[in-house]
Specification:
Elements: H1 23-32, E1 47-51, E2 56-60, H2 63-72, H3 81-91, H4 100-110, H5 116-138, E3 144-145, H6 147-163, H7 170-185, H8 188-194, H9 206-233, H10 240-245, H11 258-289, H12 291-301, H13 317-329, E4 336-339, E5 344-346, E6 349-351, E7 356-359, H14 361-365, H15 385-393, H16 408-425, E8 426-430, E9 438-440, E10 444-446, E11 451-456
Parallel strand pairs: 2-7
Antiparallel strand pairs: 1-2, 3-11, 4-7, 5-6, 8-11, 9-10
Helix pairs in contact: 3-8, 5-6, 5-16, 6-11, 7-9, 9-11, 11-12, 11-13, 11-16, 12-13, 12-16, 13-16
Bound molecules: protoporphyrin IX containing FE.
Binding site for heme: 405
Keywords: Heme, Iron, Metal-binding, Monooxygenase, Oxidoreductase
Pfam families: p450
Length: 458
């Protein structure tokens, strides 16, 4: 890297906005990128308050307060209704949106499928998707954008592990394509979630997004109904969909209906492919930009047998730290929103009932009073006392507490496995003039893609 200034040698970070801005400018910046709409002081703040004529939001950035919201009193800080507003047409009553008893029941049915022992069952499907991705990358020549490959690969993982079908299956492909256009049609999503606008403010692209949501749900309903029939006929494969659809809630004795399962499949696909793809793209760029780290990952990958097994993942200790460090610097979900269900007092401030509570994996992961050299890419930090402490207090890319990401364990298998398979096959380099610029819409993407150049390893 050749640039001068305080960021020299550091991985890219979005510019912060000036300290004082009008609401109008803030909203404009926000629509473009929720990260560069924030002031620099958030990287050192414990709490911040946004007060406008329309809303009151509190960004909570102090580990003890984050723990209160996520771990200790999650029922007092439910998912914000504002998030549901934008996502309901696509996700219905999915576990991502529900609260209270419905959410508890759904987690009781879903969680067992993602537990350690059963995660092992998904490994062959993940491996197959990884090997296919390596083959596709091998067909690239010259400089190319790796983000579409990462999305394709992550979507392949979801379809193979959930429904035992590859992304090349016509329905899987159609869902993938519809999601791509849905995401383009839904830019208001984050704005509506973070900035509770009054009802009269026009919501953009609503019609196109609704049409997309209907199309996606129609396709997923077909897959789910087919699976329900196969379960009844005793011919269903033992994948995640079957595991979830045959699990009985130990409390109520109920299973998911086809419709409720469609809601869950929609969120598994949305939450499970875009996030993993984003993380993989950034991890590859970081490895390309830091060749000495790349060589250490490649050396670890070289110890894997030609066809690795689940137990071989224990050989990828450093690769796992690389993936973790990527999630710290580029958490795919940069911010999350909750709603205060009752008045609370945080840091000697009264937070009224109904206020939006914003949690920011992005700012917490780079907090200058918590992490040593917060902007540096240093996977070895997790072996230091500071790194270990911060892993407990200031590392929430998967959220935390009872509402932690269902797929966290799954993603921590998928990410390192894909990195190892790719680095075993290729040496990767950055492309001059193509330094990525992080921008956050649905997830933290690079504004103009993540450009790489590959060479086969001998
Ligand atoms: C690197 C990859 C991933 C990251 C960074 C990530 C991150 C997150 C975060 C931050 C949340 C909490 C959002 C909030 O509370 O507002 C979440 C929730 C969720 N994630 Fe993930 N995720 C990843 C992969 C996956 C995968 C692979 C799956 C499924 C196959 C998945 C399924 C879910 C579900 C179902 C929820 C909702 C949980 C609930 O609200 O109870 N995620 N994820």
């Amino acid at each position: 890297m050749t640039e001068a200034g305080p960021d020299a040698g550091m991985p890219p970070r979005p510019a912060s906005r000036p300290e004082k801005t009008s609401l109008r400018t803030y909203l404009k910046l926000f629509r473009r990128d929720i990260l560069s709409a924030q002031p620099d002081k958030l990287y050192g703040a414990w709490m911040a308050e946004y007060r406008t004529p329309f809303f009151r939001s509190y960004l909570v950035n102090q580990p003890a307060l984050v723990k209160t919201v996520l771990n200790e009193r999650p029922m007092d800080f439910p998912k914000s209704a504002r998030i549901a507003e934008g996502l309901r047409p696509l996700l219905g009553e999915s576990v991502f949106l529900t609260n209270g008893e419905t959410w508890l029941r759904q987690r009781r049915i879903i969680d067992p499928a993602f537990e350690g022992g059963r995660l092992k069952d998904t490994f062959p499907a993940m491996l197959a998707a990884g090997r296919e991705m390596v083959a596709r990358l091998g067909a690239e020549e010259g400089d190319f954008d790796v983000e579409p490959h990462a999305s394709h690969g992550a979507a392949d993982v979801i379809f193979r592990t959930l429904f035992s079908i590859p992304i090349t299956h016509h329905t899987a492909r159609a869902v993938f394509d519809e999601f791509q256009s849905y995401q383009r049609a839904q830019p208001i999503l984050n704005l509506a979630a973070f900035v509770p606008l009054p009802k009269w403010v026009p919501r953009f692209h609503r019609r196109a997004a609704r049409r997309g949501a209907r199309a996606i749900r129609r396709l997923i309903t077909g897959l789910t109904a087919e699976r329900m029939a196969a379960i009844r006929a005793g011919t269903a494969p033992d994948d995640l969909a079957t595991k979830i659809m045959t699990t009985t809630d130990p409390v109520t004795g109920a299973r998911f209906s086809t419709e409720e399962m469609v809601d869950q499949v929609a969120i598994f696909f949305l939450a499970g492919h875009e996030t993993s793809a984003t993380a993989l793209g950034w991890a590859l760029w970081l490895l390309a930009a830091y060749p000495e780290v790349q060589e250490r990952v490649a050396a670890e990958a070289a110890t894997l047998p030609e066809v690795p097994e689940f137990s071989d993942l224990s050989k990828l200790r450093f690769t796992k730290d690389v993936f973790r460090e990527t999630l710290r610097l580029y958490p795919p979900v940069p911010m999350m929103v909750r709603e205060a269900a009752c008045p609370v007092r945080f840091r000697a401030r009264d937070v009224p009932k109904g206020a939006q509570i914003v949690l920011s994996p992005w700012h917490l992961g780079r907090h200058r009073h918590l992490w040593e050299r917060p902007d540096a890419f240093d996977p070895d930090r997790f072996a230091t006392a500071n790194g270990r402490q911060c892993l407990r207090d200031a590392f929430i890319p998967f959220s935390a507490g009872p509402r932690v990401c269902t797929g966290a364990g799954f993603a921590m298998v998928e990410g390192p496995l894909f990195l190892a398979l790719i680095l075993r096959a290729f040496r990767i380099e950055t492309v001059e003039g193509r330094r990525p610029v992080p921008v956050a819409h649905l997830t933290v993407r690079s504004r103009d893609g993540i450009w790489l150049r590959l060479a086969p390893r001998g």
